[in-house]
């Protein structure tokens, strides 16, 4: 295997070199040395960066992702942690669905103004409290 230059890793992984240096500081990746002033990485770093990207997309913090690697760098992913994150995502998906539906209602609400719409007022209250509440069922034909 040939070592890859930091610029090549950045380009292939789609992240800036500064991100690679930051990940290295956090212990998420390790360089194999330097060629001149440029860090070199084993080509296996690309798979590790893909795992990090997947974890970030799923909502894991960098510290949580760091715990998903054994000291030798191999993945050691706790299935219970994955299940808990999936449950969090299910909850967030439900919240986003409620938010989407509320915004769609507000966009087509027949009330003279959004501030007169009970559904929009509930959305404002949820936003003010930092939560997204499931709107109460409305009677058929009610705004």
UniProtKB/TrEMBL annotation:
<protein>
    <submittedName>
        <fullName>Helix-turn-helix domain-containing protein</fullName>
    </submittedName>
</protein>
<dbReference type="GO" id="GO:0003700">
    <property type="term" value="F:DNA-binding transcription factor activity"/>
</dbReference>
<dbReference type="Pfam" id="PF13411">
    <property type="entry name" value="MerR_1"/>
</dbReference>
<dbReference type="InterPro" id="IPR047057">
    <property type="entry name" value="MerR_fam"/>
</dbReference>
<dbReference type="InterPro" id="IPR009061">
    <property type="entry name" value="DNA-bd_dom_put_sf"/>
</dbReference>
<keyword id="KW-0238">DNA-binding</keyword>
<dbReference type="GO" id="GO:0003677">
    <property type="term" value="F:DNA binding"/>
</dbReference>
<feature type="domain" description="HTH merR-type">
    <location>
        <begin position="1"/>
        <end position="71"/>
    </location>
</feature>
<dbReference type="InterPro" id="IPR000551">
    <property type="entry name" value="MerR-type_HTH_dom"/>
</dbReference>
